[in-house]
Design goal:
CATH class of the largest domain: Mainly Alpha
Family: Belongs to the spermidine/spermine synthase family.
CATH topology of the largest domain: Growth Hormone, Chain: A
Subunit structure: Homodimer or homotetramer.
Structural class: alpha/beta
Pfam families: Spermine_synth (PF01564)
Oligomer: single chain
Region (Disordered): 494-524
Radius of gyration: 29 Å
CATH architecture of the largest domain: Up-down Bundle
Order of helices and strands: HHHHHHEEEEHEHEHHEHEHEHEEHH
Distance between the termini: 82 Å
Domain PABS: 232-472
């Protein structure tokens, strides 16, 4: 005798348009997609925190990333608790939750950038997005657990294992897609919008198709309207994202933005150049000010050129301005520039304002460019150089910390010829004395004798650049080579010990520990 109840699903189990096993796999596929999108939102917030708020070693590595992730994990726990109230209507709740997550996560990058550009402060907005996205992500698993149990009555342990396996694999895919696909190909704004659209489609399709028989007509209507609205908002934002970026850049950099590109390494923005000297920004930070860059580059290069300088190695300096100063010595035979970003070198070669500023240094046959990270490049056996010029971003910036470490200077010592000189840009002396003197302590720990000196900008553009000239032995004397070319910057203020050298020594911070790869000390 055939039991008439066998063909009917048990009480509480929803009727599906597919077999239960297929429905189970569809739910797990949705878990996979939603987990990937959720991790992209998290990584996007961490990346924007570093870029928009600042990324000193202390702030970015410890404070900002930790705040974003810890707030988000805390909010996920809150979301899991709140989801208990929605389990009786899990399908509707999950559909609305994914629509909200797609809208908030997809638009978060644009909103954060807008606050940064026009308000100048985005910390509170960052924390708000971390909380909101965390709550919504945390509510996903309880609702999905309810949905998958309504499809088939399997053991709870196996269901939990399947859900978390799909969730973790999806997070892996999202974590790899963000740095290798979304960020370099689409940028943070368009990448976040596309992620939101994928999130909305995955969540909406799962509920409106697979669980449509579990919804009332009114619920289906509201879910459809919500998802269409979210997709329309994301699509509109995607169409307008280029205009938005141009307006935001104008608000941040001024009206004379000529070049703005994501090179895969960083954002490069070049302003001015039509009616005045160009300014070069890397990841939002002014790297070259065309009005007075000569003060910095003359102070960086010429003290190190006192003595033999047949072969010169420049670490960083992709803008070609340090190479310009080196090439002013006719007895220089070779200049090797190690630059991590080929996009900066391309601009320095061809830009109608930047190329004349570096006096077309890359056209000189003595110049050889190596595209590589300076730390990695120094690890391989190389030849030796009479002069090594470290023209790198300030040490308090997170990506640069390893380039001011004890290990890095140990590698630099290996390529320095006997009697050779190493010069290091170590950041401002007055405003960041701990950073500057930590570089000094690190050089000394690596076996160098270092001599500090400073260069200052003019009254129209006051700057304080700190440098350290080092040799493998006693600290070298400061001065210029007999064959040094005529300089534009006043020599006493930029290139001699004078009052500035004495002033630097007068504010020396004693007994600072060196910075290492394991224990970076920069970030005052």
């Amino acid at each position: 005798m055939i039991d008439r109840h066998v063909s009917s699903p048990p009480q509480g189990v929803v009727r599906l348009p597919v077999r239960p096993d297929a429905g189970r796999y569809l739910v797990l596929a949705a878990v996979f997609v939603c987990a990937a999108c959720g991790l992209v939102y998290e990584l996007e917030l961490v990346a924007l925190a570093s870029y928009l708020i600042g990324d000193s070693v202390t702030q970015a590595s410890v404070t900002q990333a930790s705040v974003v992730l810890s707030v988000m994990v805390f909010a996920m726990g809150i979301g899991s608790l709140l989801a208990k109230r929605l389990r009786c209507r899990a399908a509707v709740g999950f559909g609305l939750l994914e629509a909200a997550l797609a809208l908030i996560g997809g638009c978060s990058a644009m909103v954060l950038y807008a606050f940064f550009a026009w308000v100048g402060e985005s910390r509170l907005v960052l924390v708000g997005f971390s909380l909101a996205i965390g709550v919504l992500i945390g509510a996903e698993i309880p609702l999905l657990m309810s949905l998958i149990q309504r499809i088939s009555r399997r053991d709870a342990e196996g269901t939990v294992a399947d859900l978390f396996a799909a969730d973790y694999v999806g997070a892996l895919v999202g974590g790899l897609a963000f740095p290798f696909l979304l960020l370099p190909w689409l940028g943070p704004l368009t990448g976040a919008l596309l992620t939101g659209a994928v999130n909305a489609v995955a969540g909406g399709a799962l509920v409106l198709w697979l669980f449509r028989r579990d919804l009332t007509a009114r619920s289906r209507w509201w879910l459809l309207v919500a998802n269409v609205t979210v997709l329309a908002v994301l699509a509109t934002a995607t169409v307008l994202v280029d205009d938005f970026e141009r307006a935001a850049r104008s608000a941040v950099y001024g009206q004379q933005v000529r070049v703005a590109v994501h090179t895969g390494v960083q954002e490069v923005v070049l302003t001015g150049g039509r009616s005045g000297p160009p300014d070069l920004f890397l990841d939002g930070r002014l790297r070259v000010s065309g009005r007075d860059e000569y003060r910095y580059h003359e102070a960086l290069v010429h003290p190190a050129m006192r003595g033999r300088h047949t072969g010169v190695l420049i670490l960083g300096g992709g803008d070609g301005l340090a190479a310009r100063e080196v090439l002013r010595y006719p007895d220089v035979r070779s200049v090797t520039v190690v630059e991590v970003d080929p996009g900066v070198v391309r601009l320095a070669r061809s830009d109608p304002a930047l190329a004349p500023l570096n006096e077309y240094a890359y056209r000189d046959p003595r110049v050889r460019v190596v595209t590589a990270d300076a730390f990695s490049w120094l690890r391989a056996p190389r030849g030796t150089y009479d002069v090594v010029i470290s023209d790198l971003p300030d040490p308090h910036i997170t990506p640069s910390a390893k380039l001011y470490s004890l290990e890095f200077y140990g590698l630099a010592a290996r390529v320095l010829a006997d009697g050779g000189r190493l010069v290091v840009h170590a950041g401002p002396v007055a405003s960041r004395p701990r950073t500057f003197w930590t570089v000094d302590a690190t050089l000394r720990a690596a076996g160098f004798g270092a001599r500090p000196y400073r260069a200052t900008g003019g009254a129209a553009a006051p700057h304080d650049w700190g440098f350290l000239l080092a040799t493998a032995g006693p600290p070298p004397r400061l001065g210029l080579d007999r064959g040094a070319p005529r300089l534009r910057a006043p020599a006493p203020s930029a290139l001699t010990a004078g009052a500035h050298g004495a002033g630097a020594e007068g504010i020396r911070l004693p007994e600072l520990p060196p910075s290492t790869l394991v224990h970076p000390r920069y970030g005052d």
